[in-house]
User: Fold this.
Amino acid sequence: MEGNGGNGGRVYVGNLDKSAKRAKQLVMGKLRMGKAVDWATAFSLWPVHLTTSCCGCEFAATWSPRFDAEQHGALPWVGARQTNMILIEGTVTKKMACAVRVTWEQMPSPKFAIAMGACAIDGGIFYNSYNIVRPWEIIPVDVYIPGCPPRPEAVARAIIELQRKIRKQRVASKWIEEGWRPDREYVKPKEDPCSWWRG
Amino acid sequence: MSLDQARRIAEEALSGIEYRVDEGKGFIEFIVAKENLVEAASRLKKAGFDHVKSLTVVDYKAEDKFKIVYHASSYLNEDLAKAIVGIGTEVPRSNPKVPTLVYVWRSVEFQEREVFEFFGIEFEDHPDLRLLLLAPQIAEKKPLRKDFIVKEEPIIRTKPPTG
Amino acid sequence: MMAGIIDLILSIIFYPPIYQLVLVGLTGALVVVIFIIWFERKATARVQRRLGPYHISPRLAGLPQLVADLIRYAFQEVIIPKTVDKELFVLAPIVATVLSILPIAVVPLTSNPAYWPIPMDYSMLVALALTTVSPIFLIVAGWASNNKFSIIGGVREAFVITAYELIAIMSILSASAAVLSFNLVDIVEAQRIWYILLNPIAFLAAFLAVLMATSGFPFEIPESENEVVAGPFTEYSGLLYGLNMGAAYMKRFAFSILIALVFLGGWSPFTPGEGILSGYLIPSLIVVAKATILMMIFSLTRSIYGRFRLDQALEGAWRLVFPMAVLGFGLALLEAYLGVM
Assistant:
């Protein structure tokens, strides 16, 4: 995919990178869509179905009829490619860390992470276990929810806090402008979480 | 009552094999030599203990041995179903090798795999002795042995721990 | 001078192919789809005693939710994995979306011959033929993704096509048989009584066929999320996924317009006259309104039904719905013999 029509027979796709960059400059620079993007991203946080541990029950309860987090615009979705939020539910074991990181890399940016429960903050009751990973070691976490497990209201509160953060700090629009989020380093795991699998 | 009955049946079945009895409140374990384990287990199965409920390993670090106990019980025999009888053996920590009981009780296959990865005990002739739950980097540290040191809780102690 | 310019602009906007493809087909369908997805989520929420999308705009009961989702999709990163067939991967959703609204461009939205996009003699056949093209690009999307779930989803779509296509064509063509004409205008004008009352069997068969064609709920087989992740769309992200998701709803909109014309009397209470307003705009709005109501009924099935297995859906389609369509066709022939219409 190099150059417009440079690669014989690929004229109709063109150079996607270049045209995407030009479109980005037009929309974000001239049309000033940044505020709308922040608004839209804040109210359309779709979490991906990835249940790492027992807090997944509370995750289910949060979207159940009684607590109904869909009123905030969040809709749990199956495929990682179509979502933009990951909710880490409780402790992450070494094997699950691989799944978390792979899912995170499959998601399109701008994307956000919420760590749920005491285990996801610093291990909880498994603080000295040989088999856990702290979620902040493998992905950049935006909001932490304490509790063992947290109540569904707390999860809804975390979604609201994340919405406020996105709209106040303009994370989403700056992310699109700059290519990476402005308020955070790129989190790269110190050791490859999937090394057990790759051998 | 039912435990006594189960004990009598198990003792009858194990007659001729040298064994030691470990018992306490509500449980009974027959500890046999490593060579007799398969023979004893198959005799227990013939006597009516048709499945294994759990497989336990205890690491006696001071005595330099592992105690491996299979807890057998019954579904079909109603009297035996109320009791759980342990059949086990002891191996030295330096050479933890035990004959497998997969061919006696099929249900122990995954439990033996779990014991293998957490304690490093090898089950000879096991059909599929691979890691079950852990990643290989952790499994080679054998995390449930006594000499595996976990991170201690950072509490200020007034005097150094003993033992 | 000003009047001349306004006339020119109006004549360009209301030039039938442009009006029907761009205004009704693209813009109208977008608005209707935004409304319908909101309605679907809200109705599902009400059935489950929830609120549904709300906090985005409490005054409008969460109506901008779909706008937010759309903007979010439009600005998200479009991931094109290394292993996919890039050209087909990018083209398939675009072509599928365009093709799925193409039937709207060939149906009449008025009886005034000045505002027909094409000669109407065989318009029924053309519209039906165009509805059968777009599913191919779902299969292409699944195949180009080079992902096991996508390929399974695409193959499921291919299976479902064999089930619904004959039923849809047969049940909608039964109106042609009753009127003895392939001209959609004739069919609409002949309905002194709406055809749904004369031949409810054919309408039911057409309804079920459209549900199958657009992955409506009891037949949501290609995209069933607890078996194959998102079916043919598993690898799609951002705008391309939005197009893919929109394509199914656009297709449902096109089918709904066709059914509104054939079974629900088209622009029926209104008699189109001369001029743009009464000759074109009002009748087309009536047709779109009828199609929207039909789509609302379609989307209610999401909150009511579970999902059939693939084999159950195929068996039901061939053993139950296909005989129903044949029966409807026979009824139509009987009506033609008796001269009811």
